[in-house]
Amino acid sequence: MKFGSVDNPGDQNLALPEDHPKTKEVLSAYGDLDTPNVFVGCAKWNKKDLKNFYPKGVGDELEYYGKNFNSVELNATFYNTFDKDQIATWRNKVPDNFKFFPKVNRYISHLKWLNGIEEATDNYYDSILHFKEKLGTTFLQLRGNFKPKYFDRVANFVEHWPQGVPLAIEFRHPDWFADSGVADELYQLLEENNVTNLITDTAGRRDLLHMRLTNNEAFIRYVGANHETDFSRLDEWVERLTTWTDQGLDNIHFFVHQNKERKSPELSAYFISKLNDALDTDLEPPRLPGDQNNLFKK
């Protein structure tokens, strides 16, 4: 993912902003679990992108990926709609505790701009429901120039989306958050419909770090900059997620990208090890080539 990439990440202020004041209030209604549900994964599982992750001679890539991660952000559904046989093939290659987090098809989000997409949305849902118990939160990514003037389209999509099926939305235009009136109306819509306000953390777009949760799910798309600051930024996320968990957060869904996908498994392993220490969770970090995992165990 090259969205929000910068040439000089070491010169940027990449600290997380303070929480939105309403986040603590939202989380106070939850907190039913002793430890949160944690799903951490990459954006893809193919060998071409995750270079040096797969051992030489590995057979099926998804099968191996599923033995090392408990989730994947599924961008394939953004480009194509798959039949039940293909989805069943993917579903059967991963363990019982694995979940797919599919991205809404671009025909709906990018080509139609959420306009007149009821039938397409139904067809998309009819496809992903074949993930069955391995279906995680579905996420809708809106265009960067999708402005608040299209609020009614967002509301129509949210209200048309099947109840009880977890949904998150990624807003990429800053006016959704900069204008308090627009933001309050948006947050109310998301809260009333139990829709997750997805957070994107990328070096060049700090204006998207709204830090405003709308339910008991933190869905974070983290984009590393292929720089040493990637690790300190992950440390900050561990601290923030620990705070949110203390306040009532039950579900952490964290997906690791890089501007150049090379070390996403390494960053994921680091993040998982740190989060396990902070939250007393027991998520197994992915196996890395050589002894790299030992770097994260203290």
The assigned CATH architecture is Alpha-Beta Barrel
Mean pLDDT over all positions: 94
Helix content: 25-40%
Order of helices and strands: HEHEHHEHHEHEHHEEEHEH
Report the sheet with the most strands, covering strand number, pairing sense and barrel closure: 6 strands, parallel
Work out the strand percent.
Answer: 5-15%
Radius of gyration over all CA atoms, rounded: 18 Å
Stated plainly, the CATH topology is called TIM Barrel
Shape: globular
Count the DSSP helices: 11
**The CATH homology group name:** Protein of unknown function UPF0759
Strands in their spatial order, largest beta sheet = 3-2-1-9-8-7
pLDDT under 50 segments (min length 5)? 294-298
* Total domain modules: 1
Structural class: alpha/beta
Distance between the termini: 31 Å
Instruction: Tell me the number of strands.
Output: 9
CATH class: Alpha Beta
Structure, explained:
There is one protein chain. With about 300 residues, the chain is an alpha/beta fold. The chain has one domain: Protein of unknown function UPF0759 (TIM Barrel). The protein has 11 helices and 9 strands. The chain has helices at about 20-25, 60-70, 75-80, 85-90, 105-110, 120-130, 150-160, 175-180, 180-190, 230-245, 265-280, and strands at about 35-40, 70-75, 100, 140, 165-170, 195, 200, 215-225, 250-260. The strands form 2 sheets. It has a 6-stranded parallel sheet with strand order 3-2-1-9-8-7. Helix 10 (about 230-245) runs parallel beside helix 11. The radius of gyration is 18 Å and the shape is globular.
